[in-house]
Amino acid sequence: MRQWCNDADLPECSSHGLRKASATILAEAGATEHQLMAIFGWSDSKMAQHYTKAAQSKRIIDAGFERRKTYVARKMSHFHRAGIPVKQIEEKTMEKQRPKTEMVGPEGTSPFAQCQGN
Hints:
The chain is mostly helical and 118 residues long. It contains 5 helices and no strands.
């Protein structure tokens, strides 16, 4: 296996790495624990669960970000139809996220003064 990887100009590859990448790809494509066990010859489901749980987490995260993207697009579409410039919306959003008061350390100094070299 080592020689094949070297011949393919892939010196960083290993049989373990290729197995791991294959298991990851199959799990992300929806392979079940039992399918992974059969393909890789695992006698118990512990390794298969590792890959299927990671793939499920990735799907959940991806779905969450997709929902956020859809929500933002719908909101922006609403503002666009109302004739409100996107720049104005972004400025108002940033204004809401800014702290209302400045943090003050001992003797009225900024707690970040040392970090800034002052």
